[in-house]
Specification:
This protein is about 40% helix and about 10% strand. The protein has about 160 residues and is α+β, with helices and mostly antiparallel strands. It has a domain of about 50 residues. The radius of gyration is 25 Å and the shape is flat.
């Protein structure tokens, strides 16, 4: 048996759990999903396995205990929902009126009091834009390999600063 512990990042409470060491070693070496390898554990106990403190961490160590999770989860959900459901009012290109950039409703209309029906599209658009920005800043491994090959053959076209 192996004792795992996970420290809640919110309240600093330490949760301890005993698991089969052999099964846990297989889990740490990506032998399967936690719910498949530890079917007898509750979801909260499996979170301890996933987010155990060193030396038994499986990736990032960020544990939120069962008591803190509802408080943290609800606050974040409320903020996200408020952002998604709110209208994004701006002046039109000709500056003649103000309307929601997504659903074109006027801020003075009754519809402006309702959630923006295009909120889910806005969220998807924001994620797409973030993804595109990330791609600009990521150096792909094959680009590095091509640069190395070009240098080996004296054909590197990059400008030197």
């Amino acid at each position: 048996m192996r004792e795992l512990k996970a420290t809640c990042t919110q309240c600093k409470r330490v949760i301890r759990l005993r698991v089969n060491a052999e099964v846990h070693d297989r889990y740490l070496f990506r032998g399967g999903l936690v719910q498949e390898m530890f079917p007898a554990l509750t979801p909260d106990e499996r979170e301890v396995v996933i987010n155990a403190d060193p030396p038994y961490q499986h990736g990032f160590t960020y544990h939120v205990c069962a008591e803190c999770w509802p408080k943290l989860h609800n606050e974040e959900d409320d903020k996200r929902d408020a952002l998604i459901n709110s209208h994004d009012f701006a002046a039109t290109h000709d500056n003649e009126r103000v309307e929601c950039r997504w659903c074109l409703v006027s801020p003075l209309s009754a519809a402006a009091q309702e959630p923006c029906p295009e909120g889910s599209y806005r969220e998807a658009s924001d994620r797409l834009q973030a993804s595109r920005l990330a791609q600009v800043h990521v150096v792909r491994e094959d680009d590095v390999e091509l640069d190395r090959m070009a240098e080996d053959f004296g054909h590197n076209n990059k400008e030197e600063v």
